[in-house]
């Protein structure tokens, strides 16, 4: 995969791309605190597609939000649409893992005319809380922001230590962890630094309610594939079971692997994606990036 950069009016997003733009476009969205390198293993099995994996704002090599801003989930949806409009992308395939799947579900629901097929890995719609929890959620969010602001940033001691810690925390292979870490750590003035904006670790100011999540997912009209890992997060499996009837044209499959199965079991996941796209007429459509 090679580096790509997109200069939007108020933000620069980066990412990785493979294949040429005459092939059907798959726009890939990574998980929380991951980055575009999350899709390097899959790219090796999706050679008949033009795969573009972006770094969300504050992740990977993408620009951080300004000091007076925060990382609201809905703002990622805004960034995504601004990117899509700027590139003139029409009727493309949207692929999301974990947080990327959440953002993807909000996008495909709000802009259904842009998406031909939607694929979600270890994710199934937005995380929710009750309306009654909103005051406590907002308080915790503000307090977490002030706490992070008051602390000095921590810096990594060595690449190897970060790779081992990332693999352990995410229950993924050292090879997969290395791909993510190499895009997230850089050297400055002889010392290692994290690229990820530490404000991403603060608590969300608000979450949508179950009723809102239902409305978003009811509005997903394109063919949808949800992929879960045999050893994936229990919460994700429960959400798929609870919400299966919310999406009109849905297929759910299970593959070997954990939460990052698209990295550690890329061949199996890619095969499910290819079969799903072919079964739903993708090869007959003009689905191209420009």
How would you describe the overall organization of this protein?
37% of the residues lie in helices and 19% in strands. It is α/β, with parallel strands linked by helices and 290 residues long. An eight-stranded mixed sheet has the order 1-2-4-3-5-6-9-10, with helices on both faces. The protein has a two-stranded antiparallel ribbon with strand order 7-8.
Number of strands: 10
Outline type: globular
Gyration radius over CA: 18 Å
The fraction of residues assigned to DSSP E strands is 15-25%
| Average residue-wise pLDDT | 92
Q: How many helices? A: 10
Unreliable spans are 284-290
Give the N-to-C terminal Cα separation.
17 Å
Helix content: 25-40%
Give the SSE string: EEEHEHEHEHHHEEHEHEHH
User: SS-based structural class?
Assistant: alpha/beta
Q: Main β-sheet: number of strands, strand sense, barrel status?
A: 8 strands, mixed
* Strand arrangement, major sheet: 1-2-4-3-5-6-9-10
Fold topology:
Layout lengths: L1 E6 L4 E7 L6 E5 L10 H4 L6 E5 L18 H15 L4 E6 L1 H12 L4 E7 L12 H17 L8 H12 L3 H9 L2 E4 L2 E4 L15 H9 L5 E6 L4 H10 L6 E6 L5 H4 L1 H14 L11
Parallel strand pairs: 3-4, 3-5, 5-6, 6-9, 9-10
Antiparallel strand pairs: 1-2, 2-4, 7-8
């Amino acid at each position: 995969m090679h580096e790509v950069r997109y200069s939007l009016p108020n933000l620069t997003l980066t990412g990785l791309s493979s294949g040429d733009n005459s092939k059907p476009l798959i726009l890939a969205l990574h998980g929380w605190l991951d980055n575009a390198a999350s899709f390097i293993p899959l790219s090796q099995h999706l050679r008949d597609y033009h795969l573009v994996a972006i770094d969300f704002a504050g992740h990977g090599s993408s620009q951080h939000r300004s000091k007076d801003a925060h990382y609201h989930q809905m703002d990622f949806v805004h960034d995504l649409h601004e990117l899509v409009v700027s590139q003139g992308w029409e009727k493309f395939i949207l692929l999301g893992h974990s947080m990327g799947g959440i953002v993807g579900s909000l996008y495909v629901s709000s802009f259904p005319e842009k998406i031909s097929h939607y694929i979600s890995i270890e994710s199934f719609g937005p995380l929710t809380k009750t309306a009654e929890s909103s005051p406590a959620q907002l308080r915790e969010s503000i307090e977490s922001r002030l706490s992070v602001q008051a602390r000095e940033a921590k810096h990594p001691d060595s690449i190897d230590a970060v790779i081992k810690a990332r693999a352990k925390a995410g229950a993924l292979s050292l090879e997969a962890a290395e791909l993510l870490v190499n895009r997230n750590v850089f050297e400055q003035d002889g010392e290692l630094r994290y690229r990820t904006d530490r404000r991403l670790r603060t608590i969300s100011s608000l979450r949508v309610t179950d009723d809102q999540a239902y409305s978003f997912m009811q509005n997903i009209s394109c063919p949808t594939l949800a992929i879960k890992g045999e050893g994936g997060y229990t919460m994700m499996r429960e959400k798929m079971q609870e919400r299966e009837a919310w999406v009109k044209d849905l297929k759910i499959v299970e593959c070997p692997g954990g939460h990052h199965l698209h990295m550690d079991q890329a061949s199996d996941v890619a095969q499910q994606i290819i079969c799903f796209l072919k079964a739903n007429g993708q090869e007959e459509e003009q689905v191209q990036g420009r």
